[in-house]
Amino acid sequence: MRSTKRHPLVWLVALLAAVGLLGAACGSDDDSSSGSSTPPGTSASGGEIDYEALSGTLSGSGATFPSAFYEEAIAEFQDVASDLEVLYNAVGSGQGKKDLGSQITQWAGSDSLVAEKDMGMFTRPFLYIPTVAAPITISFNVSGLDELDLSPDTVAGIFMGEITTWDAPEIEADNPDADLPSTAITVAVRSDGSGTTNNFSKYLKAASPSVFTLEAGDTVAWPKAQAGNGNSGVAQIVSQTDGAIGYVDLSDANATDLDQASIKNKDGEFVAPTLEGATAALEGAEVKADLTYNPLNAAGESAYPITAPTYVLVYTTYSDQATVDNVTGWLTYLLTDAQDLAEGVDFAKLPTTLQEKAMAQVAKITVG
Q1: Going from the N-terminus, what domains does the chain have, and what CATH number goes with each?
Q2: Close Cβ partners of 357 (under 8 Å, ≥ 6 residues apart)
Q3: pTM for the whole thing?
């Protein structure tokens, strides 16, 4: 869906009417920005954004998980802001945070939060802007097997290197009617610092704490695995190796035509990695004051349990008004018109209330 060049003021009336509903969804807690939501299509100062007036270059880098969404949004944004070149280098969440901290870029994509030990890399305060969410699939390639159910302990056992063949008793227990081969399991993981790894390992820590005993984070000391760069690198290992299994975002898994396991959720249901399952997981997530939230291992019969959020990280202040306008314009587009692009590239858009809060977060960006 292509955007108009300037949003009509009717957005203002509709969105202001919705502000009173901000606390009603997404399990949100108290948030000082709740009552000051900025309507989509308006700048940080409250006026309409003229996308045609934006110019220059806006550089970003970071997570591979949302790269398909950002690439699609950038292509569409070019139609309405033709003089502003938005760049995104999908190098992993860890490197994206480093690039923003070093001021190599003006925005970063990250599926993980900044660890306390890494706060010192940032020269001034920054904001989390949630953009979309999506399932992390457990993708597999096993000759003769195209459907698979996995419980959390089984997933953890595989990635801990304790379950080593496809006919192991734990996998048989999850799939009593399947004809499982004795093929050896090849585990595929990320080689780079990754928000996908962070969210997947956090899920294992929450859903299977007795089996998964490693430290969760952007990097994990997996005991027995082949490593690939980015989500696409993991997908490639899985697609080329009989007996392989790996964690891959839905967009890359679908693009590579990988088989994807259904995962047993908190309510005991095996749920496939779909956008509907991701949306169900978002419904029960508690949103913190800084707009970070955790839909992993969410309750709900239809919730897909390995659903990951993703964020754009930006500074609260930039040195000149042109950069503020460019950052604000790009984020406004991501949170409004670009949300309609999400489903087409395998992402779940934000619930309306979280979208409104994210717009209020954008309104905090100023010259300083």
Answers
A1: 10-134+309-367 (3.40.190.10), 135-283 (3.40.190.10)
A2: 22, 28, 31, 33, 34, 37, 287, 291
A3: 0.85
